[in-house]
User: What shape does this take?
Amino acid sequence: MNSTRLSPLFTLSLLSLAVASSGAIAQDQIEELVVTGYKGSLQNATNAKRASTALVESVFAEDIGKFADSNIAEAINRMPGIQINRNVFGDGTNVSIRGLGTSFTKVTLNNAQIAVASAGSVDSQNQNREIDLDLFPTELFTRFDVQKTPTASMLEGGAAGVVNIRNARPFDNSEQGFHSVVNAQGVYTDINDEISPKLSALGSWTNDTFGVLGGISVFNKQLTTEGFETIGWTNLNTSHRICGTTPGAGQTQATTGGCNPSGGNNWNVAGLIQDANDPNFGYGVVPANAGAGLVAGTIIDQSFLLAQNPGLDITQISEALIPRLGRTAYMDGDQDRVSGLVSFEYRPSDAMQFYLDVIATNQTRDFDRLALAFIGRNGTAIPTDMVLDANNVVQSATFGGAQFMLEARPYTEDLDFYNINPGAHFEFGDAHALDVQLNSSRSDWKRSQPTVLVNTPIGQVDFVNGEVPRYTSAVDLNDPNAGWTWTGGGRVNISLEERDTETDGIHVDYRFGDDDNNIKVGVAQDTIRRAIRGYDNSGRWEDVVCRNGLDENGDSPTTNRAPCDGLSPNSAVPQSELASYLIPGPAGFISVDFHRFFAATDYYNLARNAPEGGGSATGASTGIVDEDTVGAYLEFNATTDVAGRAMRINLGGRYVETDQLIEGPVSIAAQPTANPPVAAQRFYSGVSSNYNYFLPSLNVSFDAAEDVVLRFSASRTMTRPNPSAMLPATNFSDPSAQNASQGNPDLQPYLSTNLDIGGEWYTGNEGYIGLTLFGKQLTGFTVNQNTTIPFAQLPVAIGNPFMIPFDSLSPTAQAAIMSRGGPDVAQVTVTQQVNADGNLEIEGAEVTWVQPLDMILDGLGINANYTHIHQRSEGQGAPAQAIGVSPETYNFTAYWENYGAAIRLTYVWNDEQWASGPNQNGIPYAQLKTDARGQLDLSASYDFDGIAGAPQVSLNITNLTSEPIRQTFHYDSATFSYYDPGMFVTLGVRASF
Assistant: This one.
């Protein structure tokens, strides 16, 4: 939507916007707000907050084209109630507001809807509604607003709030003529000892009626991070025979015993004997070359494990938690981002204004991701000398018969985004105004991440836990000739993903009345489309690389398919030559000669012809969502006196109706025995749905004293459901076709009922002290619902008239269904997410103190805020807490500006937070948790006003103390991931002409 609907936010904006509404300000006020310096930026933010009827936080550019922060997420990170997610390289990406996750935040560009096709960080999926803000360079923007309480004229979709980013425009410069700003920076990263160039330029020309502005930002960033990661933690799958427990129905002495009741069981007993006729049935056997002083052929029974782990009982040994795939991680490469902006403004009169904004970005990433993983998941390491903490997390141990696995992945990503935003503002006399705005954005993203996995021979490995767990091997892991092998789990993967998004919108707003007292009405139509497609050709590539090749049709053999061991004469990379394709790596373990490996294995051809699959490189589901939303609103704005003091009231309601189409792929296997035979089929099946809501809002601000503003707000907001949970296809989750899952295209949006009360005391200049108490009650959460229906009545997808053909099932599934009475009788349990009645209630408080301290030292000041959030759930379906949100955060900035010099020191702290729901890796209680983290940043600059261009030299140090980014697996002693992005030092010069 255009700025008419957000007029309280723009009352004191940098320029008379082409979409200026009833809150537009006079030209002399605009000139007052063309500011320089951090103090001026704070002054503008304070003025905007004070004048707004709704609750808004703003960040203004210190000057045209000048923000100290590297991207938009970083720029708003210091606002109260705001938290950002960071990628593994330390960059801010997504924003969460007041206790809700990033998908509950709506991001708009010039008050219009946008969508970005990217997937977020390396291991993120972003298949909900997140927007990656690291795509947008701050140099091309002038203002960022976080609207915490809505008005009826705002676009819906942000249950937590709305972040609006506003690009630079020609008349931002109050003086006519040509103006330009040039920035040149070098970004030094201590972790890789590299300097990344960053350049930007912004130029504009205006006369009385016309203006044009163009800008470009180029950033070639060297990407490096190192640390540790693991796909969860797990424990030993000890058998009934070893535990000494009695097998239940359907169990044997060799199945999971009763001495690790917490679950998990992904770590196997070496050489487990499965033959019921063997006297050692249910015991394990020590393999040859196990190391750790273990003798080949020794039986692994309970007494063996107790003797090898003195001081522990069998339950402690079975419950001992180790990393499933504990791996040393190293990523290194580069990111190139090129962004451009063109903006036109035409103002033939004070009553008529036109504008056109076009912004485009291309961002590519090319980096190698190398990991050396200790094989715990499905591995057969034999534990000796284990030391456990109180939570049964292994603190140290020596493992026999253990292996490492190399995971070598070169990533290539390419992201494009552009947005076009034309509009016009008309005034008819003193009491009528009309705004029309159109918007259209397109974005596409591609990622390839082929993987090569090879193993070490088995042997002894020593493990020492800590903030970063460490493994030590007798094998030189950086030696390509150390015996690396395909056998025992070696494999290759071709994994690709493509995404595209489209948004289009038209918004029309009419205002009747003056600036203080008016009625506003508006209509809007917005469409959004997103497609995610995954492509996979891993099977064929693996046949070429380490199996026995492809058949005459270029497909994987249907019979006599060899294992991936490199022993077939048709293997392109046979075991005998594997070492020649490996090279010493930069992180203390080997890497792969990717160019030679790909050339020898027909990788590029196989990747180019990879078929579409149900999954993708990121793990996101293949599918398409189309949404067409029509909205209309009525809004009243009034200013009145109460007891001789001004009261501003904003009251309105927004009605929205959404037509939604969800499409997902359906795959039906070939039916060669059918009459007639049926070939394999793959097609998309879609389901349409419709929903509508009325979203009321009330905002009141009251000047209780000359410098005191009290506020009250009540509203209802919404966030649409996650499209990935709505894909309609039916998928079986077990080989017997007894359990299936379906998405639910009829999931309803999240609805939040919000209440805010607070106020500010304005102490002079940029200073104020503010307190806000807020509460939210959120519905729309889901639970799994199970229904049982006969197989013959099970459709290929919800809403599709075709049933799943019995002949398309595997022989195992067909036999299982026949044993249950046949297709018409055999029951299938179908699991589907449905909306539940539970509520998530969030209560919180925000305290802000901005204070100039000129009485101590001219130019000195502080900017601090603190946020506390408490969450609780009621009823079925609501989570115990919204994940990814810290219960406490605070920010503190000390600044000084005078004599052309400026220095600013900022500390941002986020409390620890839950990062997932429970039941991680089959352990019911286990959740992922993000460590508390504080980041210290320094910014300094000096202006040389007496030199042409008034150059400013700046120094910015980000993450001054090199704080890592760490997550744990429920317990502080169980590291899940640890990344060290390092410290960034940016030295630059900026000149204006």
User: Anything to note?
Assistant: The radius of gyration is 31 Å. Residues 37-51 form the longest helix (15 residues). The chain has ten helices and 50 strands. Residues 1-35 have pLDDT under 50 and may be disordered.
